[in-house]
């Protein structure tokens, strides 16, 4: 049997209808922004393998840090024990996160980082004997696939089988240009009519919705409204964190600091699954008590895994190098030029850029669903051309590893231009 045949016999892939899906491509090697399949065909990874890999595939610097940690202390339970790598990650993050963040909680992936934040928001008020059980979230949000994260997510086919089984979530419009006032008013109304514990949002860019962007001033105002009403604010930076928006965190653009921040994806440079939720002291203090019942009874077996911590430290180190910061600026400048070039194309609705994130919406005669026919046509075209891009309906976005060369980036642009002509 070939690897593809064995795959189809044994494996169940994410977000995949196996009856109609194409056979997955077997990737055998990666380096920098490139991937190679088992037949030696080369692909440019223009979406950093689902946004996790800023520093390139098979990065030697991170690999060395992981190897060193694996052969010193690979893992130790985090209940009753601690270790230097976890402390170093905490110190490093507290240095670069918004200044009000004071406590670091480890988990394993973006969904659990969100799950922790939502549970903390709900238990915060439980511990204070206040009845607040509603979570506020944006329309078309994506916060992950575990239950509270799904409840907060607004993309219906991800969650439709579970409607009616969720915690109480009320949705407000995203404050995209022209819709800010509607968003502010909706938030005020929800807070008036519900007992709200928390507001969770993807700051400035809604990734899975198709890189939907909105302004920092609008987000600052929403956070202010929450703070005036004692509603906890949760910035889900799982996608936006670690340089994607051009600053270390999307919240660095926003004048108001949130109560909690969720991190994962690029945290370990795409090597080891790990996530972190961070908190203000005020949030932590609601759990700090002589009464054991007020503790946060949440944990995962691999919490604070030292190898993951070593990978995170190496990754943050790479992010802070002048070379990497220059790469981010170069990619942003190229994106802006490309945006200018194609935004007036008759087949383009809009194009937008923030940091290394670029998205273009292509005109379509039919209403395009997330996994609709245009999406399939585009996806197949890109794969044939050796470029990994996963369009969201009629939206094509680029989120390259920061190490992508200018030549590779120009090839990605040229392929997108060709695709626009083709559809
Ligand atoms: C990907 C993502 C998640 C979920 O992370 P997983 O590691 O896939 O569980 C949560 N929030 C945002 C904003 C994301 O982009």
Can you characterise this structure?
The structure is a single chain. This protein is of the alpha/beta class and 423 residues long. It has 2 domains: 3-58 and 322-422, Aspartate Aminotransferase, domain 1 (Alpha-Beta Complex); 64-319, Type I PLP-dependent aspartate aminotransferase-like (Major domain) (Aspartate Aminotransferase, domain 2), CATH 3.40.640.10. It has helices spanning 3-10, 48-51, 60-70, 84-96, 110-127, 147-152, 156-159, 180-193, 216-228, 281-285, 306-319, 322-342, 373-384, 406-422, and strands spanning 27-31, 34-37, 42-45, 103-107, 134-138, 169-172, 196-201, 205-206, 212-213, 232-236, 260-263, 275-279, 348-354, 357-362, 387-388, 395-398. The chain has a 7-stranded mixed beta sheet, sandwiched between helices. A 4-stranded mixed beta sheet has the order 1-2-3-15. Helix 3 runs antiparallel to helix 11 (306-319) and helix 12 (322-342) runs parallel beside helix 14. The longest helix has 21 residues, at 322-342. The protein starts with a helix and ends with a helix. Residues 109-111, 114, 142-144, 202, 207-208, 236, 238-239, 264 line the site of pyridoxal-5'-phosphate. Pfam families: Aminotran_3. Pathway: Cofactor biosynthesis; biotin biosynthesis; 7,8-diaminononanoate from 8-amino-7-oxononanoate (SAM route): step 1/1.
């Amino acid at each position: 049997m070939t690897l593809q045949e064995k795959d189809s016999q044994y494996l169940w892939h994410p977000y995949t209808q196996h009856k109609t899906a194409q056979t997955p491509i077997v990737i055998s090697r990666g380096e920098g922004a490139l991937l190679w399949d088992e037949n030696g065909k080369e692909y440019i990874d223009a979406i950093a393998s689902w946004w996790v890999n800023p520093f390139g595939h098979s990065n030697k610097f991170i690999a060395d840090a992981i190897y060193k940690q694996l052969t010193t202390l690979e893992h130790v339970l985090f209940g009753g024990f601690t270790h230097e790598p976890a402390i170093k990650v905490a110190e490093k993050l507290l240095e670069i996160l918004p200044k009000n963040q004071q406590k670091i909680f480890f988990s394993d992936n973006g969904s659990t980082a969100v799950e922790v934040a939502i549970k903390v928001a709900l238990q915060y008020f439980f511990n204070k004997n206040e009845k607040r059980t509603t979570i506020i979230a944006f329309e078309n949000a994506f916060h992950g696939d575990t239950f509270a994260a799904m409840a907060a997510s607004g993309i219906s086919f991800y969650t439709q089988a579970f409607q009616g089984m969720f915690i109480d979530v009320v949705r407000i419009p995203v404050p995209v240009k022209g819709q800010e006032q509607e968003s502010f008013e909706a938030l005020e109304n929800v807070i008036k009519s519900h007992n709200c514990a928390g507001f969770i949002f993807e700051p400035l860019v809604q990734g899975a919705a198709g890189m939907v962007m909105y302004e920092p001033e609008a987000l600052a105002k929403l956070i202010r409204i929450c703070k005036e009403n004692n509603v906890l604010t949760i910035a889900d930076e799982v996608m936006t964190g670690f340089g994607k928006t051009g600053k270390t965190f999307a919240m660095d653009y926003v004048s108001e600091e949130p109560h909690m921040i969720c991190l994962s994806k690029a945290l370990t440079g795409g090597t080891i699954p790990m996530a972190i939720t961070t908190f203000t002291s005020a949030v932590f203090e609601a759990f700090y008590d002589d009464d054991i019942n007020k503790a946060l009874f949440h944990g995962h077996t691999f919490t604070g895994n030292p190898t993951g911590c070593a990978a995170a430290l190496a990754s943050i180190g790479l992010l802070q190098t002048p070379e990497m910061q220059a790469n981010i600026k170069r990619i942003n400048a190229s994106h802006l030029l490309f945006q200018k070039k194609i935004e007036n194309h008759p087949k383009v609705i809009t194009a937008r850029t923030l940091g290394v994130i670029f998205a273009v919406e292509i005109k379509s005669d039919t209403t395009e669903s997330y996994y609709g026919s245009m999406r399939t046509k585009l996806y197949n075209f890109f794969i044939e051309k050796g470029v990994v891009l996963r369009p969201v309906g009629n939206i094509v976005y680029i989120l390259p590893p920061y190490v992508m060369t200018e030549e590779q980036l120009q090839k990605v642009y040229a392929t997108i231009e060709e695709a626009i002509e083709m559809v």
